[in-house]
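pls read this stuff:
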Amino acid sequence: MRTLVILFCFSFIINLRTYTQVNDSTDIIIDFIEQMPIFPGGFDSIWCFIESNFRYDIINADPQSIMYVVKFVIDSSGVARDFNIIATIPNIVINHHIDNLKRLEILRVLELMPNWEPARQLDKKISCWYTIPIRTPYTEFNCKQFKDKGNIEYRPDSLAQFKIGKGKTNQERVNNFLYNNVVWPTGYECTGRVSIKCIVEKSGQLTNFKFVQRLCPEFDMEALRIVKMMPNWHPALKNNKPVRSIVIIPILFRLQ
């Protein structure tokens, strides 16, 4: 854990060189940021989000210890984008196939992140670079915010799955259920994403609903209503036994 903390502090030092776009061809380099970007819920919530979404059968598929350093932009609207793995420590990889799968999984999870509170300079929102180190196999967890952390399995052998409805993947089935049941709040024009975190109990029931990302009050409540009406999931398994696990469900409200 000490290595991880040191590296994360180093990532903040890296981020002191910030790029804010002035136009399509010119960037201004700012050498000091008055206020760094803030993840919804604070620093610990970054790890709560990441650790809740990883597929550990992929992340921990290879016993070789590798640190992946991911760099991305948090733009002036708070959107995290332009994800890129800029380094691995060590840079010698034994199993290239698994390495590629782990890279895709890390990027997949980070690209799900909700909007941040953007960095500020002279009281103006600006874009900046941000770096996160991810060590695999992932065995030391950083999330401290879940009330029932001691009873939550963060590294199940198989993840909780929503098996109802059409769709080849879990996300497709979840999306189909959400979009087939959504009722667009009338009289409001609000587009974007609402993300809700909940526990999948051993029975498969969803409980402990909390907002990770909000949009507008009416749309927040509609998203919560849909998630709460979801039928039971198939719970995560550890040693062939059902365990409690965390899922984060994003609901996208977008006019076609």
